[in-house]
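Q: What would this chain look like folded?
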Amino acid sequence: MADTNYRCPCCRKISPDPHDLARHYLGQTDTKHKEWLKTKGHSYAQLITWQVTEFGNKGYDALAEVLEKEAPRVEA
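A: My prediction, written as C-alpha cells:
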C-alpha cells in the first residue's frame, strides 16, 4: 500500500503529513498562499503570531487541521 502525502493547494510542494505542509506554508510569504488562507478563515499574520507567542505550536496545529481536510492527497 502506498503512503499518502499532502500537496500544497497553492504550489507543487508535497509533504508527508499536514504538519510538515503547515511548516512549508507558513514559510511562504507570497500573495497566493496568503489569499488561500483567507478563503479558509485564517490570517497569515495571526497564525505566525500564534506560532511565536503561544505554547505548543498553535499556529502550525491550526493550519495543519485545515490542510488535512483541504489539501489534495497524492500517493507516494
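The chain is about 55% helix and 10% strand.
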